[in-house]
């Protein structure tokens, strides 16, 4: 349950559409749920604006199913990242409402609807090369599931920098840019030097031997001289999307305050 749902519940109590005992029972279910192998944090979205998300890579399909069952028993989006196709098929068999995004390796139920985001600030996800697209898609799908308006630009890396220049007008419309790159990780610095928009850089593990599984790209981004750029962990499209979502929400709050 998030802030909006709590506000709706309290409004129903105020209007007499919901009794106090019923509301108290709903609020009591907000805390945590101990499942033995996992302890679900149902209160996280209300506290932080980001719901608890399942990291599925080292969990069995049965564990993911049990967690989904506990989370789907309450309102709000349910998502699992880093889920392989075989596990996803089994989970979707148990929960037909779940949708699997193959390239992003994300399972989601009750994610944000595209029709609800018209007019909202725009997040644009930019990837340097096609090999970086899975991480970029993790960022894109995550941001969409968090209720954000998202567009993607792929394969505009520094090896053919003219491809990026042709997209600058589009990039200038973004409230936040998530820029994903492997190899030497140069693209986020280039983008941050061309726009007046916050840039969240995501290093990927794409690259040859001295790329060291993304460490070269990470260090390059951390040592960037371009201002206005922050860096998340290697291949962490999910974390970049959560940060971008919080930035956008902060912008909306400021606009709301300014109009009152």
Protein described:
The chain has two domains: 11-109, no CATH class; 114-252, 3-Layer(aba) Sandwich (Rossmann fold). The protein is built from eleven helices and eleven strands. It has helices at 3-15, 20-28, 44-48, 61-72, 85-94, 133-145, 162-165, 168-171, 187-192, 215-222, 237-258; strands at 32-34, 39-41, 54-55, 78-81, 99-101, 106-109, 122-127, 149-153, 176-181, 199-203, 229-231. The strands form three sheets. The protein has a five-stranded parallel sheet. A four-stranded mixed sheet has the order 3-4-6-5, with helices on both faces. Strands 1-2 form a two-stranded antiparallel ribbon. The longest helix has 22 residues, at 237-258. It is globular and about 60 Å long. The model has no long low-confidence stretch (mean pLDDT 87).
Determine the structural class based on helices, strands and strand pairing: alpha/beta
Task: Characterize the largest beta sheet: strand count, sense, and whether it forms a barrel.
Answer: 5 strands, parallel
Number of domains: 2
Mean pLDDT across residues = 87
> Residue ranges: pLDDT <50 for 5 or more in a row?
none
CATH topology-level fold name of the largest domain: Rossmann fold
The number of helical elements comes to 11
List the secondary-structure elements in sequence, H or E. Answer: HHEEHEHEHEEEHEHHEHEHEH
Give the beta-strand count.
11
- Radius of gyration, whole Å: 20 Å
Q: How helix-rich are the residues, as a percent range?
A: 40-55%
Separation of termini? Answer: 27 Å
Strand content: 15-25%
Estimate the global geometry from the Cα principal axes: globular
CATH architectural category of the largest domain: 3-Layer(aba) Sandwich
Order of the strands making up the biggest sheet? 8-7-9-10-11
The CATH class of the largest domain is Alpha Beta
